[in-house]
Description:
The complex is a heterodimer of chains A (162) and B (148).
Chain A: H1 8-17, H2 27-35, H3 39-52, E1 55-62, E2 71-79, H4 84-92, E3 97-102, E4 114-120, H5 123-137, E5 141-155
Chain B: H1 4-12, H2 23-31, H3 35-47, E1 51-58, E2 66-72, H4 79-87, E3 92-99, E4 104-110, H5 114-127, E5 132-134, E6 138-139
Antiparallel strand pairs in B: 2-4, 2-5, 3-4
Amino acid sequence: MTAMALQPTDRAIVRTTHAGLPLCREPYRAVAEQLRLQPEEVMRRLRWMLEAGVIRRIGAVPDHCALGYRADGMSVWDVDDARVSELGRMVKALPSVSHCCRRPRQLPGWPYNLFAMVHGRSREAVMDEVAKIAAVLGPASHGHDVLHSMGTLKKASLQLGE
Amino acid sequence: MLSQSDRRIIHGLQAGFPIAERPFAEVAAGLGMSEDELIACLTRLREDGVLSRFGPVYDAAVLGIAVTLCGMAVPKDRFDAVAAVVNTFSEVAHNSRREHAFNMWFVLATGRPEDIAAVICQIKAKTGLDVLNLPKLEEYQLEPNRGA
């Protein structure tokens, strides 16, 4: 699946919906009218994008802070490269982990290859969740650190321009 | 303050929103409420900022957008000045302060992959500081939403 497979219609739908669906009885019809398409066409292309992985999911994107989870910690782990995918899936299964991914090490200063973002009501709650990750990883983790948030400096949405 | 019902709706609607003519009616039936009540509730949650968004979550990489996470170790006495420089770049989407030697972390997003290196180069030049470039190599997910 590459960006090349997207048709102009798909790109138009992406631009119209990436900030959200209209909250009305027939949201896909509203999108279709805006783009001068048939609602069936919009729904067909959305189903295809969901199948193809262009769309990860359709639903509510909660703001963790507004939900009362005011603390977050970026937990970073040094695990065996050969097992990182298997371990990453296990860590992602914990409910407090919102994002979990593999990133490159940058030695000598940065030895961590597995990132798990953890949310909690307090810093202590975040550390309790980090302890659960440590328990899941066991001896497969050769070292870890937690970078607690001290505030947002900028928050803009990704630019999906053409 | 969020009600139990709000929490149930948010939890139940994180994935699997139907692609159908009257999707809210389908979801509302499962929640034991009316279509209009559900729409009103979601509208309120979005206006209050409890939901930052409601709709499709797109995969930036598949759309051809290059994204990376950058970390910087900024001396404390220069922190605000460096933050101001970094934030002027339109390619910097999110930026946050974290308690660590690497105390500034931001997400860079560009339309063309080759622009990532160019922007990092400019940030290094303007701040005189090194930048860790940590692009996502693999993301771990639960069973993906397959919709209706």
